[in-house]
Amino acid sequence: MKDALLATLIDEYSTVEAFASILTLESQALTALSPLEQLPAIVEKKTELIGVLARLEAARDAQLAELGFPAGWSGMELAASTDARVAAQWSLLQKAAERARRANANNGELIRVRMDYNQRALAALQVNVPRKTGFYGRDGRVPAQSAL
């Protein structure tokens, strides 16, 4: 049964590495002048990989239970303490997950900065300008006003 757990950890590791690669592409897109062409496919792939990771985590928890260990982190720590191969793969998975977590946090900050910039740009465009004859209204027409 430990072989099945080891295989699941290997699959999780490769999926986390794929997720980290997608996060790198997302970071590049977020720093591009026009990211809108790239982001939908990136978000779709991220969503797919998150689903795969959830299924692998559930499988890992089931395998831990079959081996008599609790689910989650504590169970993996116990399982790793009993098998050097599991310990090595668990360590690799943890390091990959930490890299992905840092990349995801960085992308979140890039998104926050971009949103802040967009909000400031929008606010600058919406400044209340005194109405003067000759300025176009919201409908694209010059409003009918009496001259002062």
Automatic annotation (TrEMBL):
What are the protein's UniProt keywords?
Cell projection, Cilium, Flagellum
Q: Which domain of life is it from?
A: Bacteria
Name the UniProt record assigns to this protein: Flagellar protein FlgN
